[in-house]
Design a protein that fits this description.
Elements: E1 2-6, H1 10-21, H2 23-30, E2 35-40, E3 57-58, H3 61-65, E4 72-75, H4 83-92, E5 96-99, H5 102-119, E6 123-124, H6 136-142, E7 148-154, H7 157-169, H8 173-182, H9 191-194, H10 197-211, E8 221-222, H11 230-238, E9 241-251, E10 257-268, E11 280-287, E12 291-298, H12 302-322, E13 336-337, E14 344-353, H13 359-369, E15 374-380, E16 387-392, E17 395-396, H14 397-409, E18 413-422
Parallel strand pairs: 1-2, 1-4, 2-3, 4-5, 5-6, 8-10, 10-13, 10-18
Antiparallel strand pairs: 7-9, 7-11, 9-10, 11-12, 14-16, 14-17, 14-18, 15-16
Helix pairs in contact: 1-12, 4-5, 5-10, 7-8, 13-14
Length: about 425
């Protein structure tokens, strides 16, 4: 079974290492030896952290994936192009493809699945979400006989590391980010992580599998963590909460639509997700019959991601030897993604207010006007430091947004100091 590898960076080099070190075991598990047919790279002659016959390297990726002697293509170069064109070329020629490309799957997964169907090949992508954690295959296969109602979790290790450091040390966002970059958890340009783009792509993939409907990253409501301050984290901590960047995919109560969102949220310290530290990932899957399942582990890194790639490689290799295919894309449900405004959630709101009689009554009146009920309220400080801290009951996001806009217009409210959604304690 001959394998073409696209990319020899952090993940690609680990894929080669594992293929070499575990060659005998992999051959026994697949039923045939796995042989590296070629490695496509941008530049030849570059020093790499893995031993490979120099003759296997090529800069002509298109020729490599279309060679007649190649059975399986592994894509770990990332991005949209040329990855999409290369994967489609391979699939249309009947080759099986293993990819870790979350951005491409979230933007144009339909094209890849259609090419796999046309070429009668496999498309596997376990490594695209949560690194080494076996998550997509359980959704795709193990829970195929159940009805998934919600997926909730931490799917970006960089932001989890930053928020964990802010919580445990009191560091500012910028200081925690700098530490994450020093340790290699964050890129020099961390935008994809800290602004939620990476998590949104993963949420789109998770929602598509969970609800048997096509979802793109554009349909995911996305908020990052760049506006979270040390004060926000400390305030949450004082109330017994921790702030996490969560990916949330949930069916509506009537089951006809679902929401997909990525945003920071406060969760109780008693919640299992609150204990997810450093750059780890953890995801809850809730299904009607199976109940609540939790998946936890290393969500990124060369070796963990390569582990998921090799698992898919064994699966597609077995399928090819048996003359079968793995499961196709399941989109029979055709459920719609409802807008964020219709999503029911809860909020923690901190208001800088004038310290005088009647303030609470006027604030409560505004909440009631928009059908948002208050669960708890407390006043902190006096005079110029007076602040109201309010936690709401569940309401639509549109109602909460309208309430915040109204609060900013009240003459007794000097500023809406912070607004944070609350999850996991209802």
């Amino acid at each position: 079974m001959r394998v073409a590898l696209l990319g020899c960076g952090v993940v690609g080099s680990q894929v080669i290492r594992l293929m070499h070190e575990q060659s005998a075991d992999l051959a026994a598990r697949v039923g045939a030896p796995l042989e590296l047919a070629g490695v496509a790279v941008r530049r030849l002659g570059r020093k790499r952290d893995v031993e490979v016959d120099p003759a296997l390297f090529t800069t002509d990726a298109e020729s490599l994936v279309t060679r007649d002697d190649v059975d399986i293509v592994i894509e770990v170069i990332g991005g949209i192009e040329p990855a999409r064109s290369l994967i489609v070329s391979a699939l249309k020629r009947g080759k099986s493809v293993v990819t870790a490309n979350k951005a491409l799957l979230a933007e144009d997964g339909a094209t890849l699945h259609e090419a796999a169907r046309a070429g009668n090949g496999d498309l596997y992508f376990e490594a695209s979400v949560a690194g080494a954690i076996p998550l997509l295959r359980p959704l795709r296969e193990s829970l195929a006989g159940d009805r998934v109602t919600r997926v909730l979790g931490i799917v970006n290790g960089t932001t989890n590391y930053i928020l964990d450091k802010m919580d445990s040390t009191g560091a500012s966002f910028l200081d925690a980010l700098e530490e994450a970059q020093t340790l290699g958890y964050a890129e020099a340009d961390p935008t994809a992580d800290v602004e939620g783009f990476d998590a949104a792509a993963k949420a789109a993939i998770l929602a598509g599998l969970a609800f048997h409907s096509r979802v793109t990253a554009e349909q995911v409501h996305r908020e990052g963590i760049t506006d979270i301050t040390a004060t926000d984290v400390a305030s949450a901590k004082a109330m017994g909460y921790v702030i996490k960047l969560l990916a949330i995919c949930a069916r509506s109560d009537d089951g006809r639509t679902f929401g997909v969102r990525v945003h920071p949220a406060m969760i109780p310290r008693s919640h299992p997700l609150a204990g997810v530290r450093e750059a780890y990932n953890a995801v809850f899957v809730e299904a009607e019959s199976a109940g609540q399942l939790m998946f936890y582990g290393k969500g990124a890194g060369g070796a963990p991601t390569a582990s998921a790639v090799l698992g898919d490689l064994v699966a597609v290799g077995r399928n090819r030897l048996a003359g079968t295919r793995g499961p196709e894309e399941s989109t029979y449900a055709h459920l719609a993604v409802h807008p964020m405004g219709e999503t029911v959630t809860r909020c923690h709101v901190a208001l800088d207010v004038a310290d005088k009689p009647g303030v609470l009554a006027r604030v409560a009146e505004l909440f009631a006007k928009h059908d948002v009920s208050i669960q708890t309220v407390r006043q902190e400080g006096h005079g110029d430091d007076a602040q109201l801290v309010i936690v709401t009951h569940r309401a639509t996001d549109a109602a909460l947004t309208a309430t915040m806009e109204g609060l900013r217009e009240l003459d007794i409210v000097r500023a809406v100091a912070s607004v944070m959604r609350v999850e996991g304690d209802d």
